[in-house]
Amino acid sequence: MWPDMELAVIKGVRQQLAGPRVTDEVPAKVEGLVPVVVVRIAGGADDRISDTVTVDTESFAADRSSMWQLAERTRAAVHALAATVAGGVVIDSVDTVQRPVEVPYGNPAVRRAVATYSLITRASTDA
């Protein structure tokens, strides 16, 4: 059985960042809740032993400077999950697939940076 990597990454990043809201969807009226980090599974593959998971992060902040700071803190938090257990899941390695890049959100009160990472984990041996 493959673990819930989205939840594991959310828990791990939440612990590393200690401050911003970390969730799996953009909250309504995000402009009043920033800073916010959204974590989503974007794909992946497995070889029946290891699971390679593609994870997208979106870092929302009120201005450009805060957005870049949050995006880089988020990148460091995701990379810190390598060779650890996050949310009960062993994460073997983390690589950046796409560094943080600003992507317009369509709301002038919010700036957003999106990044993509590849994480490798193993199937659960729990019965």
Q: What is the topology?
A:
Elements: H1 5-17, E1 21-23, E2 36-46, E3 50-61, H2 64-79, E4 84-86, E5 89-102, E6 111-122
Parallel strand pairs: 1-2
Antiparallel strand pairs: 2-3, 3-6, 4-5, 5-6
Helix pairs in contact: 1-2
Question: Would you mind describing this structure in some detail?
Answer:
- The chain has 127 residues and is an alpha+beta fold.
- The chain has 2 helices and 6 strands; from the N terminus they run αβββαβββ.
- The chain has helices at 5-17, 64-79; strands at 21-23, 36-46, 50-61, 84-86, 89-102, 111-122.
- It has a 6-stranded mixed beta sheet with strand order 1-2-3-6-5-4.
- Helix 1 packs across helix 2 (64-79).
- The model has no long low-confidence stretch (mean pLDDT 93).
Query: Could you tell me the mean pLDDT?
Result: 93
Shape category: elongated
Low-confidence stretches: none
Beta strand %:
35-45%
Largest sheet: 6 strands, mixed
What order do the helices and strands follow? HEEEHEEE
How many strand segments? 6
Tell me the distance between the termini.
9 Å
SS-based structural class? Answer: alpha+beta
In DSSP terms (H or I, runs of 4 or more residues), the helix count works out at: 2
As laid out across the biggest beta sheet, the strand order is: 1-2-3-6-5-4
In angstroms, what is the radius of gyration? 15 Å
Helix content: 10-25%
